[in-house]
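User: Please work through this fold.
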Amino acid sequence: EAEKMNKKLLATFTAAFAALIVNAANTWYVDCQMADYTGHDGKSSEKAFKTIMEAVTPAASGDTIWVHPGTYNSGTGTCVRPELVGVGWNNKKLFLRSTDGAEKTIIEGHKNFDIENGGSAEGNGVGAMRCFSVYNNTTATYGSVLQGFTFKGGAT
């Protein structure tokens, strides 16, 4: 009877441990200052992605993205409006953190004042780029963390 109980407990703990491993959050890395990105998968500092959005795209809720120093200014995500977004995600709780702090890690947007080409007097519109945006403001994104960055030059 005791042996049966021990086997049952072992099976329960093994299943619980396996579930933790399957549901474990991933860690992603970004470094815009590397010379070569061939074969990079973002899963280590040595094989970091070049842009933050490259890490945001495969990341799942609960994942952490570590961003190395540099100026990140390539918009690759699109908003509901025509502006581009430097960094943004939808329906994910992500932890986006700088490795070296705000003084060394900058997310730079872009304003478009060219009214004839979709811009505006405020710098918004087609071609403008926000520094950061979390889409849809759903409960899935609540608790997201953005830590250790300087934002500059972005449209609203």
Notes: The first helix runs from residue 2 to 22. The two ends are 68 Å apart (CA to CA). The beta strands are 27-30, 64-67, 70-72, 77-78, 84-90, 95-98, 105-108, 129-135, 145-147, 150-152.
